[in-house]
Design goal:
The chain is α/β, with parallel strands linked by helices. It is built from 3 helices and 3 strands; from the N terminus they run E-H-E-H-E-H. It has a 3-stranded parallel sheet, with helices on both faces. Helix 1 links the parallel strand 1 and strand 2. It is flat, with a radius of gyration of 12 Å.
């Protein structure tokens, strides 16, 4: 899980490497802009969540990622 507010290119490279290893990546953002969300998905992130997070939504998203259901 990565916070993508104000991140650098090195973090996107890390996301891509994790994707190459089939490691699910979830990101968090407080930005109302679509730009960080779109960038996250372009770099292999499976889930982008808004901050502040809702506990039930966070648990469900983590469960879906661990079970391999990235359509959640």
């Amino acid at each position: 899980m990565l916070d993508i507010d104000g991140i650098t290119g090195a973090v996107w490279e890390r996301c891509e490497r994790l994707q190459d290893r089939s490691v699910p990546v979830m990101t968090l953002t407080g930005s109302p802009s679509e730009t960080p969300r779109a960038a996250a998905f372009r770099h292999g992130v499976q889930t982008v969540m808004d901050k502040p997070m809702r506990k039930a939504e966070l648990r469900a998203s983590i469960r879906a990622l661990l079970e391999g259901d990235t359509d959640a």
